[in-house]
Specification:
Number of helices: 2
Order of helices and strands: HH
Shape: elongated
């Protein structure tokens, strides 16, 4: 295994954990009304972006991590 794969796996795991934080932030915005919509949309876009990066990084690392599903 090269030196890059463990780093990519770590980045993929960090992206997974960050998505959990995004979910928590979205849930905290529930009930704030229509004025929170723009912030929630931005958070969802961030979560989706992290999801794409997570998948790409995980495939590039070539080995599953403990957080792999």
């Amino acid at each position: 295994m090269g030196k890059v794969e463990p780093f990519l796996r770590l980045l993929a795991d960090l992206a997974t954990l960050a998505r959990g934080g995004v979910v928590a932030l979205v849930l905290l915005r529930v009930g704030e009304g229509p004025e929170a919509l723009a912030g929630v949309v931005r958070l969802l876009l961030l979560g989706w972006t992290l999801d794409v990066l997570d998948g790409w990084l995980a495939r590039a690392s070539r080995r599953p991590s403990p957080l792999a599903a």
